[in-house]
Write a sequence for this structure.
């Protein structure tokens, strides 16, 4: 009889422990997703990654600056993640070698120039500078992308299928 009580007691404690752990995990996940990012306020200067780590054939995302860094003709370029159409976050797609907006299907080449879709212009750029080895992105200095229909400045056709499922 005491074995049954022990088992019931054990299960009761197990459930309670599980609920506490699930609550803690849920709280931590919510906090991690919703907390403000340090230095993420646009309008400021953000130190990002070493210039040597900026790729020349793909793009790397820097969340604190809401930007994608890539190199065009050996120059570091910082492309704002915000789609010029209606402001969705544009994503880099490795399989196509393009930036893609899942909201309405705009596509941009690696230099951020519009290839297709409703975006009226290419992705906007932030000013960049060198801070020691690091790339400094000035999110307060924005240059608008070239109007849609402009000639592309790089010769990089899509590599393959896209990632967006708009
Ligand atoms: S918000 Fe990107 S295509 Fe509409």
């Amino acid at each position: 009889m005491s074995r049954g009580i022990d088992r019931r007691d054990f299960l009761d404690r197990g459930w309670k422990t599980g609920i506490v752990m699930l609550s803690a995990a849920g709280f931590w996940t919510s906090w991690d997703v919703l907390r403000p990012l340090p230095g993420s306020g646009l309008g400021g200067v953000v130190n990002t990654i070493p210039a040597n780590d900026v790729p020349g054939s793909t793009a790397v995302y820097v969340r604190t600056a809401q930007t994608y860094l890539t190199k065009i003709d050996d120059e570091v370029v910082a492309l704002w993640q915000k789609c010029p159409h209606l402001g969705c976050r544009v994503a880099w797609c490795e399989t196509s070698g393009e930036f893609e907006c899942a909201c309405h299907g705009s596509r941009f080449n690696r230099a951020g120039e519009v290839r297709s879709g409703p975006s009226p212009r290419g992705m906007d750029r932030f000013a960049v500078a060198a801070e020691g080895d690091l790339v400094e992105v000035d999110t307060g200095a924005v240059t608008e992308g070239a109007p849609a229909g402009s000639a592309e400045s790089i010769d990089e056709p899509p590599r393959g299928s896209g990632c967006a499922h708009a």
Residues 36-40 have pLDDT under 50 and may be disordered. Helices lie at 2-34.
